[in-house]
Amino acid sequence: MSANVSPVAIGVFLVLFLLILSLGFFAGRFRQGNMHHLDEWGLGGRRFGPLLVWFLLGGDLYTAYTFVALPALMYANGGAGFFAVPYSIVVFPLVFAVFPKVWKVCSDNGYVTAADMVEGLFRNRTLALMIAGTGIVATMPYLSLQLVGLEAIFGGLGLHASVTVLGHEMDVPLLLAFGVMAGFTYNSGLRAPAIMAIAKDILIYTTLIACIVIIPAKLGGYAAVFDAVPPEKLILPPGPPNSLGPQFAYATLALGGALGLFLYPHALTGLLAASSRDAIRRNAVYMPIYAFMLALLLLLGFMALAAGVREMPEFADGFARFGEIYAVPALFNYIFPPWFVGVAFAAVAIGALVPGAIMSIAAANLFTRNIYRAYIRPDCSEAHETMVAKIFSLVVKAGALGFVTFFPETSVVQLQLIGGIWMCQTLPAVLLGLYFKWLHPTGLLAGWIAGMAAGTWMAGETGFKASVYNLYVFGFEIPCYSAVSALVLNLAVTFIVSAVLRAKPAGGALAAAKAGPEETWG
Amino acid sequence: MSGKPGHGLRKWINLLLLVPCVAALWTPFYNSVEPRYFGIPFFYMWQLVWIWLGAGLTWIVYVVAWRGADR
After folding, report:
1. Phi-psi map region of B38: left, alpha, beta (phi>0 left; psi -120 to 50 alpha)
2. What is the pLDDT of residues A336-358, one digit of tens each?
3. Which residues of B touch A284 (CB under 8 A)?
4. ipTM surpassing 0.95
5. Is residue A261 part of a domain?
6. What is the pTM of this model?
């Protein structure tokens, strides 16, 4: 595959890539504040207006992995892979309805993370530790996946050089790109990915518009694109008798994804960086532009199918090495002139670094606030706290790099799958805690444990390969996204245990819990 | 909690946010190939159109109930 990439493509790619990376270093000066303050480094001073939040969230949610993996899913599975679209239709009304309230509570009390908020609401450190731990553990494989995407791009361009570390091959271009990302994150904090996200979006939109105009024209219109898809894969297949069938699985995948998305630390970090509740609401109105972009991107999978890239001898190597993930890079190489291949690949590569930076910042905020300051050095100064966060952001990145080097790619994907299921289990404490003040911290903890255990078990039953697990109720089959079924159990346990504990108040615990939430209500 | 007190129409208009959720999650509405529009099967057309309808409804809720609040 490396043989047929023109030097023009590589040249354009490198120029754009380096240009946008250098933006990251200067971003720290944008609306500069006191960078020895965690609010400034980790949340951009909570001063991002609607437009910047829009770019930041877009950079956050539509990652390199999304660009490569989701079209590959369509390429392999057909219409069933389109669930990312209903998921994004659901997520923005949800953001509109719920997250201005989260922002208000966090802003009034100086909370930087979801775990901060939970500790403030329930005055329970164990619960806060659970939330922080879930966030850090679920973010790590997500960050590693960005590296997998970046590696595929470098590989697709034929930029391949490796050194051997402890018997494992380490990709040198990947190492360099990651080193630069670590540098600008350390230096500029959340401002770096926000500014870079603007440049990234310009490249992505250019690429996508080129795709939707040029590709169908070349392949004979959209009708020809859809005709290339086997008819049985075009829509969701009918289920077996006595089963809710693939349609139910599709809907739960969309719902579970939407519920989990903004519980992820990096997504919440983007929202908390907003300057006001109004900025968040306006974003919920504008974000669907990204959703439309995502839908078009998914259709690239079908376009790759219609173009027949798999049968072309020049791409045989790439498919052998990367599998279906190679479908979109191959399509770009086939359709575009060399210079534009460079633009498209640069867009996807920056699409890996922007969310990578936000994820490492979010994980660092969690570690510093809810583990370091809570358990190791409760009396540390603001400047010391920020320094710890900066250093931990480097540790997280090194960990992610080690992960993709020493573990097979499949295990990264599997961990990401469990991460999504785990993240959803923090919903009762983080979101319902805002509305149901009588929920008991012990109830929330019990629910969390039940949800985590059930979710992990269901994923394990499928060999950590599938997110959908078939439940059987009186012989009736219910194929459900494990995150959703585990969340149902989690909610049931949370409410039942809370009701029992509230009915027989255990003196001190109740008083402590009640003392918490009241002052946070604006 | 809100800067703009929600009552009357302003309170109920928020329920519009549920409409795109139902349209997107109730698959029996749209799980069919025909009719096609511009060569695009109904399954895809419905979901593509609902991205914009969802945004439109959210915008209506924003304008009617929330604009000017919490800046």
Report:
1. left
2. 888 888 888 888 888 888 888 88
3. 58, 62
4. no
5. yes
6. 0.84
